[in-house]
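Hello support,

Our group uses your service weekly, and this is the first time we've seen a run hang past the timeout. The protein is Transmembrane protein-like. I'm not sure whether the cause is the sequence or the server load. Input pasted verbatim:
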Amino acid sequence: MVEENLRSDNSRSGLLDLDRESCQEPCKSNYKTFLNREKKCPTCKGTGKIYQEEENKLVALIPVSDNRLKPKRIWLWMLLTLSICIVIVILLVFWLSPRKIIISAVKSDVYPYNFTLITDKNSTTLGIILEFEEVFRIKNENYFSVSLKNLSLQLNRNSHITLPKISYTKDFVLPSRANVDFSVFVKYIMYSLNDPYAGLCITGVLNNLFCLISSSFTFSTLWDSSMLQDTSRIQYIYCSNKTLSRY
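Update from on-call engineer: The timeout came from a worker crash unrelated to the input. Re-ran successfully.
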């Protein structure tokens, strides 16, 4: 009866009794701080009671060993998430790693589709213009597309090096893992004054020219905006009017 009367008196005065076993004794005893100083419980001031309006402001501390802090299968989910991240990274590295762009000339014999004589006012033949198509096979081994930014062509014939006029598709885009044939139209001019083989081709004495054709391709890739690829091949360029190809 006495204990019930005390509880009713405390509730009327706005005070709440803390649990006798878990709080009343510790609240009345001192505790040591990090500086080894003894202090009373800051919550109840050592009285073992708190005001009713303050009960919603208190925060309960849960020990680390509490099972509620250890959800089931947490390590399984962490391992699964880590595995997925590793697989994604490996796939990205595999797909986005730079690979080779292989270029090779398709034809060994080049036939002109247009043969034009260069003459002066007196109808004297000064040289010839050979127009032919050079075909390159381009293989993109990357898993992303690349674009062609520039192309240069050089003809080396018995130490006689020339840079002919060329025309090709600008900003050509090569799809990923693609293998395509790329055409370059070449306009090769030979003058009899500085090239003795020009007169032989004009008269038909010589039908073909032994020539080293070198090309330089500049590509724009995902990682490099000026990737350079060179290729060279010895080819025979047919130079007489008798060897015109059907185009």
